[in-house]
Amino acid sequence: MDREAINLQYEVKDNHIIIKKYIGNGHRVSIPEQLNEMPVVQIDKFAFAEQRQLEEVQLPMTVKVLGAHAFYNCRSLKKVCFGDQLTDIGDGAFKNCYELNILQLNGSQKKMRGMKYILSEFDSEIEVVLKENRLLFPSYVFDYQENTMARTIHQDILGAGFSYRNTVFADGIDYYEYDSLFYKVEADSIQQSVRLAWYRLRTPYQLSQKAKEIYETFIMEHIIEMVDYLLNEEEWEGIRKLMDWELIQQSDIPLVLELAQKRQKIQAVSMLMEYQSRFGMAEEKLFEL
C-alpha cells in the first residue's frame, strides 16, 4: 500500500471512498485514486484541517467533492493539484491558506467549475497550471468608502484580478477577454504584467495575433524587468526564447548583459555574449566572479 494511504482514515459508502482524516505529517501528499479497489470520490470536511506543515497536495482525478473547511488553516499550503471531476466544493475549503498560489487542473479545460470556485475564494495572486498552458490571475482588493451624509457605503475594486477571474466559466476560459484585460494589470504592476505576458507568449494557447503583438511590445519595452525575472528563476530556456524571438533589441544588449553579470549568472552571460556577437558588437568587459 502507498505510504500516504496508510495515513488516511476513510469510510466506504456505496462502493466509494470518502477520506475522513489525514493523520500523517507530510509536506507533499498525493492521494491515491483507489483504496481497496474502490475509487476515492470525496475529501470530507476538515479532513486536512490544521496540517500546517503541508505544502502541496495532489488530489486524484476521481475526486468530485471537497468538503467544507477540508484544508482549513493549512498555512504552508502553496500548491493544489486536482482533476476536472471536482465540481462540488464546500464553504471555506481553503480558508486561511494564505500561501496558496498555484492551482493545477489535470484534465480538460472544458470542465472548469472547480477551478472557477477556488479562484473566486482568493483575492491574492494565483498561478493556474493547465494541460495546454499556464496563466496568471492578478490580485485585487475590495475598498469600501462610507458616505455618512447619504448613509451609504460605496464599494470599489482595486486591482485587475477580479476582472481576470470573471473570464473563467464552468465550461472554460474566455481567452479573448483574458487577453483584452492586459491594460488593467499593466497599470497596476509591471512585475505581474511581465509574468502574465511571458506565460501567454511561452504557451500561446488560443492567443490571437493582436494579443501576441501587444505582449511582445510590452516585453521589449520592459526587457530589463523581464530578464531580471528569468534570471531570478534561472530559466535559461526562457532567455534563449527571448533571443530567438528577437525581443532583446540590439540597443538593450549591454544593459541586459550587465544585469546578468551583476547577478553572477554565468550561463546567462555566456548566452547573451553569443547573442551579442550576432550583431558584431564588441564585448566591453569580461565576466568575473
Describe the structure in your own words.
There is one protein chain. The protein is of the alpha/beta class and 289 residues long. The chain has eleven helices and 16 strands. Strands 1, 2, 4, 5, 7 and 9 form a six-stranded mixed sheet that branches. The mean pLDDT is 92.
Rg estimate, integer Å = 23 Å
- Percent of residues in beta strands: 15-25%
Can you summarize the main beta sheet?
Answer: 6 strands, mixed
Large-scale geometry: globular
Number of helices: 11
How many E strands? 16
Give a brief outline of the structure.
This protein has 289 residues and is an alpha/beta fold. Helix content is 34%, strand content 23%.
Task: List strands and helices in order, with pairings.
Blueprint: H1 3-6, E1 8-13, E2 16-22, E3 28-30, E4 34-35, E5 38-43, E6 56-58, E7 65-66, E8 79-83, E9 88-89, E10 102-106, H2 113-120, E11 126-129, E12 134-137, E13 141-147, E14 152-158, H3 161-165, E15 168-169, E16 172-173, H4 175-180, H5 182-188, H6 190-202, H7 209-221, H8 223-233, H9 236-244, H10 253-262, H11 266-278
Parallel strand pairs: 2-5, 3-6, 5-7, 6-8, 7-9, 8-10, 10-11
Antiparallel strand pairs: 1-2, 4-5, 11-12, 13-14, 15-16
Helix pairs in contact: 5-6, 6-7, 7-8, 8-10, 9-11, 10-11
Characteristics:
289 residues, 23% strand, six-stranded mixed sheet, globular, 34% helix, alpha/beta
